[in-house]
Known about the structure:
Layout: H1 23-39, H2 42-53, E1 60-66, H3 72-83, E2 87-94, H4 97-103, E3 109-112, E4 125-131, H5 139-152, E5 153-162, H6 166-176, H7 183-194, H8 199-210, E6 215-219, E7 223-229
Parallel strand pairs: 1-2, 1-4, 2-3, 4-5
Antiparallel strand pairs: 5-7, 6-7
Amino acid sequence: MPGLLTPSRQRGIEYLDSPDVDPALRQRSHRDIRLSNTLFGGLRAFLLEFERIVPDLPQRATLLDIGTGAGDMPAQSVQLARRHGIELTAIGLDAVPALVVSTTRRIPLGVCAHALALPFAARSIDVVCCSQLLHHFDDANALIALGELHRVARRYVIVSDLRRNWLAVAGLWGASFPLGFHPVSRHDGVVSILRGFTIEELRALVRRAVGVDADVRARLGFRITATWAAVTS
């Protein structure tokens, strides 16, 4: 629910959503995104959820990261799984070819495809996840994307995103200057937060998309996660 510190959800325009963005600018801004995820809890939020489900994975498991960007999430997942004695094959998927190339510098497998039409068979990947991706879609396409994640997942789905709050906007804006963020990164970061979710909104969206009550949690750094079992019976 919108409130004093929680504005109404807005769509806005993120420059990096355009397919015509200069590749050098995209690469520059993604460095800022990686730093933001590391410092402000995006990476931590996802890994906390992944570590919760690791004990339920087989000794050899697979993970698909949708909208992987530079591939940080799947690379870190491989290391975490290894500490639990699990050999994890991670795949990074992104719609931007240059980002797929960047992904393969960290993990062996990269796929160029769109989240709304995943090129994988049903129940073919143990863990399907996305981080800081869902807020890029309007509600209609978010439902499709969640349905695709659920369709492909064999065991679990993890969605990690931004928790909408004015304090998060102020924090990102203020920190972006000493951290040397590009103006595009600063603008898109603010728009991303205003596109983010509350716990109730994300839970309702997952329920509408796949008919499952996800375990939705607020995380530090104004992050939010939703995790659910792909097969409940």
